[in-house]
Amino acid sequence: MGISAVVVAAGGAALAEVVSSTPTPAPSFNGPVYAVAHSGDVVYVGGSFTGAIVGTKTVKRERLAAFNARTGSLLDWNPGADATVRALAADGPTVYAAGDFDRVAGMARDAVASLDATTGKLGALKHTVLGQPNALAVANGRLYVAGRLTAVDGAPRTNLAAFSTATGALDTWAPTTDVAVDALAVAGTRVFLGGAFHKTNGVSSTLRLSAVDGVTGAVDRSFLPKPVSKVFALAADANGVYAALGGQGGRAVAYTFGGAARWTRVFDGDAQAITTLGGITYVGGHFDKACTTTNNGVKGVCTDGSVPRVKLAAVDGAGNLTDWAPQGNGVVGVRTLAANPANGLLSAGGDFTTMSGAARKRYASFGGPRAGETSPVVPPAPPSPYVAAYNFDSTVTDGTFDDGSGNGHLLKTLAVNGGALQTVRHGNGQGLAFPRKCSGANCPRVVLQATDVPDLNPGTKNLSYGAAVLLSPAETSSGENVMQKGFSTAGGQYKLQIDGISGKPTCVMSDKTASAIHVAKGTSSVADGDWHSLECRRAGTELTIVVDDQEAGSTTVPAALEVVTPQPLSLGGKGTGANNDQFHGSIDDVWISIG
Hints:
Largest sheet: 8 strands, antiparallel
Oligomer: single chain
Radius of gyration: 27 Å
Distance between the termini: 44 Å
Shape: elongated
């Protein structure tokens, strides 16, 4: 079961077992993970990612994914959501999701949805929710939802709501808080609430952490812990309630069911996630150190000494810090923790990219049914739909950018006249900004190029390629290349460019033996200072330009049009020479698909 150590009290009695700090095989993700839920040996993951990373390949998974905890294999479960998934809960054959989305599995679902745990098919849960859900819990025949809520289906709800797990109908359970609720935990018929609120059901003594009846919603006045700062996360087991706090540094606090503090651990940054497994409390956050006492000072600095605990820590039942220290990385660090007592698996999700020195992008598993095996083999990924894909979220010091398709088409930076790329924020990752507009022979120029290989030549096959672009009106010129392979004079070409001062996107193709070019041009400018998704799509005899998922123009191409060129794939310009059609905006999420 992946046990690495036994925690021993001062008198020598064994208290609990800690999972191994070595991560077990699991997919990584190309964007933050906000939520994890377990059901048997299946782990469900939600967040703002668009792909699961298995080995060297990125497999499309729009903010929802699942994998087998025993094998580490990514499962076919792939409903997809159109915006961030912030919370998940599993209940037998059903997985519940909540977040910022309007559509799930291609169908309308406002902020909450139920999904078949095996097929991903949508369930009956469908409501109009005003606000943002932050947390889910299932118990007492209800799905409890917490967040910043004002109404459901027109019925007033103040940050809390519940739905029947049998019918999906809105339940009468409706306690209130004066500020958003960020965390939920359930023990029996009591539902514990955490956040930055001051009152629950108008009761002033229910500061930041309170308990309500899971059926009536009435405040439990016997539970009045009054934590010192905002509660980010909650967990509960047979021994009590556990809270992860922010504030000056961060704290993990264990409470009895009567609200008395059992123990407190202090960190130099917010504790954002908490769970229990086998008598051990696991804490995650954006801290780097655990304080040796409960004292800390300005900006959370431990005043009486500290030990390294980068983003994760474990505490025994008596409040003692254990030696467990996977040492993650990143700024935000760990956003969520979940444990499965049935198989001993601990899951961590967030914004980190390494754990225990191993690459684990935004998700890591510890312990569980596979833990303890030697030299685990990462299962093969499903085939990527792309022959090349670049999100520019990972780079090395020599200016080389990874190919997310797994096909190894690395991009290398070529620059002249002091040209340089700058990283820019895009969504939850980063894009690249090319040199600003300039006139004269000595202007800075930069392109990214991948060595020519046969699988980047489509021949006569159907072809799609695209990118996200950001261009301001002041950055347009007579023509700027986003991406290009080949020239019209030899071997044929396919190209995506922004044409003219007006800034209209254009798709261009030509045949390997003919110099005539075929152009599909968009009707509206994309040079407006906002990000736009552009796609060129050759299907048979039609070449279409797609802007922000809407067809914007098309032209006819010969059925026999063939592109077989020895020229490299080039982004941002056709080369580094003069008149290179330099792109002056920013790009991200570049991809090519053939066939």
